[in-house]
Design goal:
Number of strands: 0
Distance between the termini: 39 Å
Low-confidence stretches: none
Number of domains: 1
Order of helices and strands: HHHHHHHHHHHHHHHHHH
Length: 456
């Protein structure tokens, strides 16, 4: 009876957001749509007047990349929260992963989709996008990036959809008479006749095994190629052979932090405390701390080697981030994004849900600043001894489009959780069944053990 009650509570918790929608949800959607509308208006202005409305106006001594490329690198980075982390946890058979895999996987798809918009926005002339494919130079890392992100997006959609099939079938059966006709049609079509037979389960597990093994190198390659857009140049600050590993580690670092924040928000809003527990936050916190140490080592290594050689205008580049105008961002990134989150996770009295969420929030903000430093601080550095520092400050149009992108990220997630279960019901149920079977086996083993002899 206890197992039946647990299964019933799971269904109720996972399906409740699909049955009921509060006024607060509609208000939240309205605010997000309003912010997106402001961003669309700003982009329409940019489309009509050109990049002159941005801080990257094509005049002498201007930075040519700004918030758009910063956001591109940031969103592609946090996309590693899902597919890569979920695949690694599945491959390693980490049982605690089950309630959070769905959230991780749809963060990947949403972040990739939003991030992929920024090169188009930065281009200024979207009508020229076909030229990139028709006449692009195959030697260019930008073209490599186009194909890498496209491959990763397709693979992530497949990896998100496959474990959704059993849950869509559950929605098809359990929500009859409680949802609209379009939703019923969606569940009927995309559940592809799932009945939970042994053959279907075997085929699903085989497909998931193939995808989770395939998606790991694809995810690693994506942010490696993103880093090559910078590292394949001779520009001071970008000319590095370790940018690939550095970018991949940073992507996973910011991805874990984003997953923690989304997980905490959905847990609070939809009352999922029974399934998303302190253990999930602490385990992700350990992963966050581990990658924080990797990032700290990479930054220290980069700082020592660059300051020792002082090649080209490296002294100018280092002075502006260590003690110049970018110093507040840089030291917040080091102390607030790498050291302080590690300290929060180090002590038992702060190693809890609140502590891990605060650490994750610090990491997300700091990693956006880190992308700002990589792009703007480097492009401001002159490439000749007698040139002056370039100029850049984000314009109102760039800020509005950036806010619209973050609102779009939130909007898609908000719509998604109203369309499919935020928990992977069948995976959590399997975990409950395995746990119950383990308890039964343990009890039977104890009952079958011989009684100790008197006086033994």
């Amino acid at each position: 009876m206890a197992d039946a009650n647990a299964s019933h509570r799971l269904d109720e918790a996972a399906l409740a957001p699909l049955r009921r929608t509060s006024r607060a949800y509609y208000l939240f959607i309205f605010v997000l749509v309003a912010i997106i509308g402001a961003g669309v208006y700003a982009y329409s202005t940019q489309l009509a007047r050109g990049l002159t409305v941005t801080g990257m106006a094509p005049t002498v001594n201007k930075v040519t990349w700004g918030l758009y490329i910063i956001n591109f690198v940031f969103f592609i980075g946090i996309s590693h929260a899902g597919t890569l982390i979920s695949a690694i946890l599945r491959v390693s058979h980490a049982e605690w992963r089950r309630p959070i895999t769905r959230m991780a996987e749809f963060i990947t798809v949403v972040a990739l989709s939003v991030g992929a918009l920024f090169p188009i926005i930065d281009l200024g002339r979207p009508d020229r996008i076909p030229n990139l494919i028709l006449y692009g130079r195959w030697q260019s890392p930008i073209l490599w990036d186009l194909f890498a992100i496209s491959t990763y997006l397709v693979g992530s959609l497949i990896y998100l959809y496959l474990p959704l099939i059993p849950d869509l079938a559950t929605c098809r059966e359990r929500l009859v008479g409680q949802i609209s006709a379009p939703k019923r049609f969606f569940y009927r079509v995309f559940s592809v006749g799932w009945r939970g037979t042994n053959d279907q389960r075997r085929n699903l597990n085989s497909a998931l095994t193939v995808m989770m093994i395939t998606i790991i190198p694809v995810a690693v390659s994506v942010h490696t190629v993103v880093s090559w857009i910078f590292a394949m140049t001779l520009r001071t600050g970008w000319d590095s052979t370790v940018f690939g590993a550095y970018f991949v580690a940073g992507a996973i670092f910011s991805g874990i932090a984003t997953l923690i924040l989304v997980m905490a928000l959905l847990r609070k809003v939809y009352h999922l405390e029974e399934y998303i527990t302190r253990k999930h936050f602490v385990n992700l916190g350990y992963m966050l701390a581990a990658f924080g140490l990797i990032m700290l080592y990479a930054n220290l290594s980069e700082l020592v080697t660059a300051s020792y050689k002082l090649q080209g205008n490296e002294a100018v580049h280092l002075s502006q981030i260590l003690s110049g105008g970018f110093a507040p961002l840089y030291w917040f990134y080091i102390f607030g994004g790498l050291l302080l989150p590690g300290a929060v996770l180090l002590f038992p009295f702060t190693r809890n849900v609140v502590g891990v969420v605060i650490a994750a929030l610090l990491v997300v903000v700091a990693m956006w600043f880190e992308r700002y430093l990589i792009v703007v601080a480097t492009l401001r550095t002159p490439q000749t001894p007698y040139a002056s520092l370039a100029d850049y400050f984000p314009s109102a149009a760039e800020i509005a489009i950036t806010a619209g992108a973050f609102a779009l990220f939130g909007l898609v997630i908000a719509v998604f959780v109203k369309l499919v279960p935020v928990l992977s019901i069948w995976e959590v149920r399997e975990g409950l069944e395995e746990e119950a079977a383990g308890r039964v086996a343990e009890r039977r083993a104890l009952e079958a053990s011989p009684e100790p002899a008197a006086g033994g």
